[in-house]
Amino acid sequence: MLLGLLFGLAGMGSSSAAIALPLISDDLGVSVGVSAWTITLYALMLAVTTAVYGRVADLVGVRLPLLVGVALMTGGAIVSALAPSFDVLLVARLLQGAGAAAVPTLGIAVLSARYDGEIRGLAFGRLAGIAAALSCLGPLIGGVVESQFGWRAVMALPILGLLVIPFLWHALHNEGTGARLDIIGAVLVAATAAGVVLLVQSPSTGMTVAVAGVVLLVLGTPAVALRVRHRPHGFLPMSVITNPVVVRSALAAMAIPAAWFALLIAIPAVLVGHGWQPWQVGLLMVPSAAVGLATPRFAGPLLTRIGGPATLAVSGVLVSVAMVVAAVGAHQVWSPVLLLAVMLATVSFGLGQPALSAAVGDAVHVDVRGVALGVATLLFLVGGSVGSAVVGGLGDVVGIDWSLVVLAVLPMLGLAVLVPMLRDRPGVLAAHDSL
């Protein structure tokens, strides 16, 4: 529950901050479009540094990298709240995102080391449920705080994560392999990951970002391949990137955050465009927070019964349905239908995120579990960038409703990736019964 709280506070760095963009643009003298870079850069650093934290945790244990991450997140939040200019705000958001990236990967690593069997499935489900609930509350909390204290107080909300660390101290192990960090490999992986995220977000951020993403990706991909071949036990172990369970599970799970981030952007855009206030949009999402808290009650048992890959399949079907429902709600501007879509997506997140963690954690050796979870989390967060990019970019061309229909296809592609892992007939039948 404490790790879920910390996870949720890291997620609120984007879900609650998005509410403050209009005031930021007015106060610091930039357009609303330019102010969106405070979200883009946060998401970029959140994605590209996850694998770094995971690998460092393999080497020195969880305690030190988590402390560094939370300290960076706190420091970035403080500077963001006090930023005298937009340039300072952007730098602060970079630091904040780089720190927040420690939370999802290392939180899962803590639970993987602490629990096993059915208890671990329950723990993963509770972590995802609490994180999803707080993310659902992010727009409401951000709207209320903004209306009472201004946008700077919204930026300071992640500071609360520092208060959680003392209660987690006893659960943070500091044992690792003791090997040295492959710094060159870390830089190459981070740069290549940055290229992927920039390229994915370019439909909503412009041609310059697209070019930068292509350059980083084209140069970084062969460099990473050569580094892995030269150092198969370096920063990105060969045993991780050639593990089919890790790769297939992560690719299939990308559809879940894609839907989640798409709804966080689409629903406020649709409702505020029809006269709703931001705090009213946040209030609409409160019931989905209750759904997030209730999901672990069946997520853990389902994960234990049918396994990670089959649970990912169930999650993919649910999130595809959620996107279709959201498209109908966006087209007709029906708030109850939009709420139903968020609820379905919340359940999907509560099932899919722990299923990904369980599948990846069980598929690799403990010495590389951290970096494996980091790589999986990286692809998971890239999925979120896909969702926001599709709604932000394609939504301007064909409408938000049709952009959500496009995203409904993504989980079906994920199911196709999972097919080789679902050949075990009992697992498939169990997943079918669950559906």
Give a brief outline of the structure.
This protein has 435 residues and is an all-alpha fold. It has 24 helices and no strands.
Word description of this protein:
There is one protein chain. This protein has 435 residues and is mainly alpha-helical. The protein has a single domain (2-434), classed as MFS general substrate transporter like domains (Growth Hormone, Chain: A). It has 24 helices and no strands. The chain has helices at 2-15, 21-28, 32-35, 37-48, 50-60, 63-82, 86-100, 102-114, 117-149, 151-155, 165-168, 183-205, 207-230, 238-241, 244-253, 255-272, 278-284, 286-294, 296-306, 308-332, 335-363, 369-398, 400-418, 425-434. Helix 15 runs antiparallel to helix 21 (335-363). The longest helix has 33 residues, at 117-149. The radius of gyration is 20 Å and the shape is globular. 60% of the residues are buried.
Question: Which helices and strands occur, and which strands form pairs?
Answer:
Elements: H1 2-15, H2 21-28, H3 32-35, H4 37-48, H5 50-60, H6 63-82, H7 86-100, H8 102-114, H9 117-149, H10 151-155, H11 165-168, H12 183-205, H13 207-230, H14 238-241, H15 244-253, H16 255-272, H17 278-284, H18 286-294, H19 296-306, H20 308-332, H21 335-363, H22 369-398, H23 400-418, H24 425-434
Helix pairs in contact: 1-9, 4-7, 4-12, 4-22, 5-6, 5-8, 5-22, 6-7, 8-9, 8-22, 9-17, 9-18, 9-19, 9-21, 12-13, 12-22, 15-21, 15-22, 15-23, 16-20, 16-21, 16-22, 16-23, 18-21, 19-20, 19-21, 20-21, 20-23, 20-24, 21-22, 22-23
